[in-house]
Design brief:
Tetracycline Repressor, domain 2, mainly alpha, 71% helix, homodimer, elongated, DNA-binding
DNA sequence: CCTCTTGCTGAACGGTTGTATGGTAAGGCT
DNA sequence: AGCCTTACCATACAACCGTTCAGCAAGAGG
């Protein structure tokens, strides 16, 4: 047989493939589509692999959460007040499937203790980065809340809220306090 | 037997009991806990009742969504700019289990077509009410986004964001545009 | 070409899911 | 008190869930 039945990958490569497949399922069908069957079919692997690499489905979910947070935390070097809004709504996190994945994750974070602890850790780091730009911690919380809420509206009613309108709305509220951002 | 094995209720009464039980399950364990078994146990009824009254689990979910929206849409008579923030963060919608239920619902709305259509209908009505107060539709979208984002933070990191801090953050951003609200 | 490590498969398992359905009894009405 | 409507129960069912595990085979090293 010239064609091998399956390929072997380095563990971290295969783990990455499973994480990506998990995000795709999450974006397509929410947490209800985040099943071992779906994910392994999406990744083109057999059902045992998730347990093998992540110990179980919950382990993969934590890894997916971390992967979803990565683009949110990256690329803050050199960002000042001008450029803040562009950074908040950077394509990497504001275009699909990013927001869809977050929508599904939020519903689980509130309910899954492990995920919740992991989230608070990342969120604090995120908030620190934003606070460094706007100069105030409470204001940073408000800015993040505004951005998240605009993500939300875009997901739930895309006809009403586009990325451009979201940026405009964000600037409308922030300009009186922060100037041109 | 003096004690009857079960009680009979008027259909709309029993439907209300099931909706309430569904919201409790949603708040406690997210969409993963929204199962026929859980809900009927919570309501003290047998497993067949949901199909009997709502045609199926999806029917109940739509009813729960409508019930969750009710307190958001009520009580806007006579609300002007002063009082807007108090109305946005009224206890009926900002204290548990309200936000927890919404967190779970948001993840499904994006994915369930029936729920999505229903949501857009209610959301438009909500936005209209807010726009009537703030006088501008785009601004209304931004205000709702801000309020939703603050709900979110309070659910995900309650230690960091309390109802009072949420109100303060909201006023901080709105005062320069709307005055004292 | 052989060997050895190990990434991976795939079937089997017990438990849970939502729905369908035939039978039961609650409680209003006469 | 008896009847009759119908709200309700409780089981059965097939589909699907996540985990386990014994063994296969891919492919690097020799």
């Amino acid at each position: 047989m010239a064609e091998p039945r399956f390929r072997r990958y380095a563990p971290e490569v295969r783990a990455g493939m499973l994480v990506e497949a998990g995000m795709a399922c999450l974006a397509r069908g929410g947490i209800g589509a985040f099943t071992v069957d779906n994910i392994c079919a999406e990744a083109g692997a057999s059902r045992g692999l998730i347990a093998h690499h992540f110990g179980g489905k919950d382990g993969l979910l934590v890894a997916v959460h971390a992967a979803a947070y990565a683009p949110v935390l990256e690329g803050w070097e050199g960002v000042g007040l001008p450029g803040l809004v562009d950074r908040l709504f950077a394509p990497a996190q504001f275009t699909e499937p990013g927001p869809r994945v977050w929508l599904a994750l939020w519903g689980e974070i509130a309910v899954n203790p492990v995920l919740k602890a992991e989230h608070e850790r990342h969120y604090t780091a995120y908030r620190t980065k934003v606070a460094a730009v706007v100069g105030d911690d409470v204001l940073a919380g408000a800015v993040i809340a505004l951005a998240d809420g605009l993500w939300l509206e875009q997901c739930l009613a895309p006809d009403v809220m586009s990325p451009d309108r979201a940026k405009a709305a964000c600037r409308m509220l922030l300009r009186p306090i922060l100037g041109d951002v």
